[in-house]
């Protein structure tokens, strides 16, 4: 395996800097976001590398659970922040937290215990990367699905209330919107699955090959991970949409859009600049 030096990383970062300068010259207002994103990714991944290396040397389940909890909370916070309209109070964060826990944790445990049969099952070499991959992809599906559900519920308020007035219950009234939101949440991962190996070489497989691994074994791991990601994304999106759809109605079958709030980040981004 070819070891990278700080100079190698600096040369890679130069490409981001050139792209930021190009967006600045074209007045696309993306330069600062690109640079901030690159800096944030560098710091987060570098810190994670040191933490995981430390955990590898300790081999304790408490350390694995600690970093897993931090990753889960960060993912739930990110899902909430991506919503144009999130639920008021703890529901905004708690709903994302519950959906990610149901999907990513259960799928990770299933893979570690029944498929990989790691000994111990919480072996950091397998458990931390597995959970990270699942959380990252499930987070995208959940955030897209939730955002679509709440946006459509807000836009189609009259339609939903009309269905309720005609005798439909809350599940029937919002069924079409829930189906569309579910398709929105799963479309990116389905597209990725369809293009894997034909149009693109997935990250896990690429990393193993660059590290000197056997290409066939790398392909096997990538296939397994794709299956786990699709299952985790599907379960997480289903869970989040079910919880959100129930929260949008009260026990008297009334649509409660007052339980939604527009995130401040979206308000700021849409405000006219002076």
Give a short synopsis of this structure:
This protein is mainly α. It has helices at 6-25, 31-58, 61-81, 90-115, 124-155, 157-165, 170-173, 175-195, 203-210, 215-247, 264-270; strands spanning 85-87, 260-262.
Structure report:
- This protein has helices at residues 6-25, 31-58, 61-81, 90-115, 124-155, 157-165, 170-173, 175-195, 203-210, 215-247, 264-270, and strands at residues 85-87, 260-262.
- With 274 residues, the protein is mostly helical.
- The chain has two domains: 1-58, no CATH class; 60-266, no CATH class.
- Helix 4 (90-115) runs antiparallel to helix 5, helix 5 (124-155) runs parallel beside helix 10 and helix 8 (175-195) packs antiparallel against helix 10 (215-247).
- Residues 267-274 have low confidence and may be disordered.
Primary descriptors:
11 helices; two-stranded antiparallel sheet; 274 residues; disordered C terminus; globular; single chain; mainly alpha
- Average pLDDT figure: 87
The profile of the biggest β sheet is: 2 strands, antiparallel
**SS content category:** mainly alpha
Question: In what range is the share of β-strand residues?
Answer: under 5%
Which strands sit side by side, in order, in the main sheet? 1-2
Q: What level of helicity do the residues show?
A: over 70%
Q: Overall 3D geometry?
A: globular
Number of domains: 2
How many strands appear in the DSSP assignment?
Answer: 2
What's the total helix number?
A: 11
As residue ranges, the low-confidence spans are 267-274
Distance between the termini: 52 Å
Order of helices and strands: HHHEHHHHHHHEH
CA gyration radius, whole angstroms:
21 Å
């Amino acid at each position: 395996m070819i070891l990278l030096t700080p100079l190698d990383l600096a040369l890679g970062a130069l490409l981001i800097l050139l792209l930021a300068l190009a967006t600045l010259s074209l007045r696309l207002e993306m330069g600062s976001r690109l640079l901030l994103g690159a800096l944030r990714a560098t710091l987060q991944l570098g810190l994670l590398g040191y933490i995981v290396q430390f955990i590898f040397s300790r081999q304790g389940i408490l350390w694995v659970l600690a970093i897993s909890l931090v990753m889960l909370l960060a993912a739930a916070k990110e899902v909430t922040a991506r919503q144009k309209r999130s639920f008021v109070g703890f529901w905004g964060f708690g709903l994302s937290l519950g959906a990610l826990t149901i999907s990513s944790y259960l799928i990770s445990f299933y893979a570690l215990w029944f498929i990989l049969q790691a000994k111990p099952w919480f072996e950091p070499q397998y458990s931390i990367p597995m959970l990270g991959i699942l959380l990252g992809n499930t987070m995208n599906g959940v955030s897209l699905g939730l955002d679509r559900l709440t946006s459509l519920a807000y836009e189609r308020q009259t339609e939903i209330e009309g269905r309720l007035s005609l005798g439909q219950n809350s599940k029937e009234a919002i069924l079409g919107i829930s189906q569309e939101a579910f398709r929105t949440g799963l479309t990116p991962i389905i597209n990725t699955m369809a293009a894997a190996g034909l149009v693109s070489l997935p990250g896990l497989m690429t990393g193993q090959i660059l590290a000197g691994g056997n290409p066939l074994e790398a392909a096997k791991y990538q296939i397994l991970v794709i299956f786990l990601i699709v299952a985790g994304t599907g379960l997480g999106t289903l869970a989040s949409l079910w919880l959100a759809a129930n929260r949008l109605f009260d026990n008297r079958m009334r649509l409660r859009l007052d339980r939604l709030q527009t995130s401040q980040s979206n308000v700021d981004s849409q405000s006219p600049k002076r």
